[in-house]
C-alpha cells in the first residue's frame, strides 16, 4: 500500500476518455444546516412513513421473487399524479432521474454521438454523457451582458438555442427547467423552437417543476404530437424522497420501448416500487411542504436583495445569488458558522437551498454576519 491509488489508477486499463475526470462530488459534511444539494429539509411525515413501512413489509415476504419488471402499478400511479391525460405506457421510472437520463443516453447517445446542454446547468448531464461514451457540447446561455454579476445572463433565448442546435446537430439536447443552478424556469417557446430545430431527442429535466411560480407551464403540455420529446421528473425534491431513489419520465410510448433495450432487467426493486407507490398515494401530504419551501425561497430572494446582492428569480427550491466579491471566502465563512451551501464554480455566485424557516433564518443571519467581514462592493 505504499503506492498511491492515483498511481495505480493511472496504470489500470481504464477507458482513455475517462482519464483525468473527476466524479460528481457535492460535499456531504456533518454540519447543523445543510443547504447544498437541494434536498427537501422536511422529514417524511409520520403517516407517510407508516404507509411506506406497511407497503415494504408486504413485499418483504416475496423478496425471493424478482420484482415486476414493468412496475405496472407504479407507472399507473405516476401517470395519475402527472395528469395531462398521460397513460401508463408513456411513463418510465428508474433509480433516480439520473438513471432515467443514463438510460436515455445509452439508447439515444453513446459512442460517436453528441449531446448538447446549455451551461451552467446540472453537472450530471455532462458527466452521464461522458460515462455513456458520447461527446458533450457545452452550449452557451445569455446574450452577453455588461455586468458579470447579473443573474439574467443565464437566461436561455430562442435564437441562441436554435443557432447552437443547428451548429452542433446534437443527437440529444438537454434543457433544464427550472434550471439548476440558476433557478429560473424556461419559456416554453424555447422548448418548442429547440424541438423544431433538432432531429434528435430533446430532454427537458423538470426535477424542480413542483416549486415553479404560479402560471409556469410544464413541458408535459407539449408532449402530444412530439415523439422525440422527453420530460424527466423526480421524487427526490418536492416529494422529500431523495433517499428512496425514484425518478421518472413521460414521453411517447415508443421512446420508453427504446429504453427497454438498454435497461437492466428488474432495475427497480420491489421495495423501491412499493415505497414509491405508498408515497404517491399520500402525495397531498408529502407536497404540503412545497408551499412552505417556496415562501422561504422568496424570503431568501428578498433578503439577499436587501443585503445588496443579486439573486436570480427562482422557480425552484434554491436561489442562485450573485454579487459576491469573493464567493469562496464567503462560502468558508458560512461553513464556519455551521451553514453549508453550494459553490457551483461560477465566479461571484453561490447557490443556497431553501430549507425550513429556522434554517433559512440561520443562513440569512450568517450571510449578513459574513458580509460584515467582506462587504458587497459598491
Ligand atoms: C436534483 C436533480 C435531479 C435529481 O436526480 P435524482 O437522481 O432523481 O435524485 C435531476 N435533475 C436535476 C436538474 C437536479 O437538480
From TrEMBL:
UniProt-recorded Gene Ontology molecular function terms: histidinol-phosphate transaminase activity; pyridoxal phosphate binding
Keywords on record: Amino-acid biosynthesis, Aminotransferase, Histidine biosynthesis, Pyridoxal phosphate, Transferase
Residues covered by the Aminotransferase class I/classII large domain: 33-367
Pathway: Amino-acid biosynthesis; L-histidine biosynthesis; L-histidine from 5-phospho-alpha-D-ribose 1-diphosphate: step 7/9
Required co-factors: pyridoxal 5'-phosphate
Family named by the database record: Belongs to the class-II pyridoxal-phosphate-dependent aminotransferase family. Histidinol-phosphate aminotransferase subfamily.
Keyword GTP-binding: no
InterPro entries the record matches: Aminotrans_II_pyridoxalP_BS, Aminotransferase_I/II_large, HisP_aminotrans, PyrdxlP-dep_Trfase, PyrdxlP-dep_Trfase_major, PyrdxlP-dep_Trfase_small
EC numbers, comma separated: 2.6.1.9
Modified residues (N6-(pyridoxal phosphate)lysine): 237
Assembly: Homodimer.
This protein's name: Histidinol-phosphate aminotransferase
Gene Ontology biological process terms, A to Z: L-histidine biosynthetic process
Entry keyword Amino-acid biosynthesis: yes
Catalytic activity entry: L-histidinol phosphate + 2-oxoglutarate = 3-(imidazol-4-yl)-2-oxopropyl phosphate + L-glutamate
Native source organism of the sequence: Kineosporia babensis
